[in-house]
């Protein structure tokens, strides 16, 4: 009588492991592991999960890539690769950052009014461990601190400017954004343009918080805050020397906008904070966070 042909479950364990390692889908591996104890053991092995970790983390921020140095660090933790995969997935969904972690990252800095087609104003913005920022495109420095969340979205106070909300991209990069600027930790990956072009759409979508008037929040020299329509905001930036005027007419319009800047909020809108008009000279350097 002819012998029965071998089946998947009767294969030698090392050959079965080789077959399981060829599966590049986490869902497929997880499903196969639930079919029987033999496949469960094979699909739970480090030989299967280490390649899955490497492929998955290669699509994330560079600090998660499975380099030889990082592999040694993870092995020293004594956890299985399956458990490392699980822990990283949970951490990738974390939306709270510690002050120490924030201070360890490098951010690119973008003014929101410039849009996704303009490169970052800085690719070396940092939250210093001393509680002050550095790397601002205009040379500014101010204090920063994490704010209490009260169960909501985590925020970072940036000097006298509107608090910035903390979020993450699908690549596990961190994003800190307020109505004026967007900061992305993708700068730490060393891309020449900070956040890679393929992530710009996600970055702008993740930080979009339009004002009903289609405006931008601006902090006054006295510490108040007003909302300026986008055109007026760009004119204000030109007046303060942060944008190059396109022509004399644009500069004249910017001057007119700036002269009425501190009185902008005297209308009937009740949802904006009162502005402080103790300084109309424009010398309060921090109006461009």
Walk me through this protein's architecture.
It is a single chain. By secondary structure, the chain is an alpha+beta fold. It is 33% helix and 15% strand. The protein contains ten helices and ten strands. It has helices spanning 13-21, 26-33, 37-43, 46-57, 68-76, 81-92, 99-103, 197-206, 230-239, 248-259; strands at residues 107-111, 122-127, 133-134, 144-147, 155-158, 164-168, 174-177, 181-184, 215-219, 225-229. The protein has an eight-stranded antiparallel β-sheet. A two-stranded antiparallel ribbon has the order 9-10. Helix 1 runs parallel beside helix 4 (46-57) and helix 4 (46-57) runs parallel beside helix 6. The longest helix has 12 residues, at 46-57. It is elongated. The N and C termini lie far apart (83 Å). Mean pLDDT is 74; it is low at 210-215, 218-227, 242-248 and 250-288.
The residue ranges in which pLDDT falls below 50 over 5 or more consecutive positions are 210-215, 218-227, 242-248, 250-288
Distance between the termini: 83 Å
Beta-strand share of residues: 15-25%
Number of helices: 10
Sheet with the most strands, sense and barrel status: 8 strands, antiparallel
Question: Which features does this protein show?
Answer:
289 residues, alpha+beta, 8-stranded antiparallel beta sheet, two-stranded antiparallel sheet
Question: Can you give me a brief rundown of this structure?
Answer:
It is built from ten helices and ten strands. The protein is α+β, with helices and mostly antiparallel strands and 289 residues long. It is elongated and about 85 Å long.
């Amino acid at each position: 009588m002819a012998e029965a042909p071998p089946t998947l479950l009767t294969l030698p364990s090392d050959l079965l492991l080789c077959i399981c390692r060829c599966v590049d889908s986490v869902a497929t591996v997880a499903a196969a592991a639930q079919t029987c104890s033999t496949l469960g053991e094979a699909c739970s092995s480090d030989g299967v999960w280490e390649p899955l970790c490497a492929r998955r983390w290669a699509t994330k921020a560079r600090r998660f890539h499975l380099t030889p140095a990082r592999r040694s660090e993870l092995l020293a933790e004594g956890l299985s690769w399956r458990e490392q995969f699980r822990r990283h997935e949970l951490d990738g969904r974390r939306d709270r950052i510690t002050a120490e972690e924030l201070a360890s990252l490098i951010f690119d800095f973008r003014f929101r009014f410039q849009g996704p087609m303009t490169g970052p104003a800085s690719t070396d913005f940092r939250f210093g461990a001393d509680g002050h920022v550095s790397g601002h495109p205009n040379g500014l420095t101010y204090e920063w601190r994490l704010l209490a969340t009260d169960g909501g979205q985590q925020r970072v106070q940036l000097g006298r400017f509107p608090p910035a909300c903390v979020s993450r991209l699908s690549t596990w990069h961190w994003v800190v954004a307020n109505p004026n600027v967007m900061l992305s930790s993708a700068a730490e990956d060393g891309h020449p343009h900070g956040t890679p072009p393929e992530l710009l759409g996600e970055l702008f979508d993740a930080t979009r918080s339009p004002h009903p008037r289609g405006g931008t929040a601006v902090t006054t020299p006295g510490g108040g805050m007003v909302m300026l329509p986008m055109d007026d905001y760009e004119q204000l930036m030109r007046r303060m020397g942060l944008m190059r005027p396109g022509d004399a007419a644009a500069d004249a319009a910017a001057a007119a906008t700036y002269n009425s800047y501190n009185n902008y909020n005297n209308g009937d809108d009740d949802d904006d904070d009162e502005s402080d008009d103790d300084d109309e000279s424009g010398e309060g350097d921090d109006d461009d966070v």
